[in-house]
Amino acid sequence: MRLGQLGKSRRALLFEAAAWLLLARLSLLVVSFPRLARHLGTVVTPTDPRARHAAAGNSPDAARLAAEIGWAVTRAARHVPFKAVCLPQAMAARLMLRRRGVDSVLHFGARIGYAKPIDAHAWLDAAGVQVTGYPVADAFTEIACFV
Question: pTM to 2 decimals?
Fold first, then answer.
């Protein structure tokens, strides 16, 4: 579907997603990760009840919104003039959801890599919706998450 064929609200969501992707990418380039992590939320283990609660959600409106934001972020990431891989996508979607009062869980995983010693991946859940970074390969082991 072309940009001109989208409704105003979806088009606005795409532009917002592109702006947040740019901010996330720039943040990753200029801010140390420990400093950046303080703004991502509280680090918990993947089995922490807070992670399950935030990922589950309980509102159909929140689920619809999470799905729309996931759509916008993944579509915008394909067309921005910079590399917007899993972590900037998860960060952008998390910020967009936070602005709208929807809880989310930002997951971090790792696996032994082929081209490099370790591969990492980030994905985001909110309101029972797989927002960004899915599908997650079975070889990835979740090591931490932000709530």
Answer: 0.89
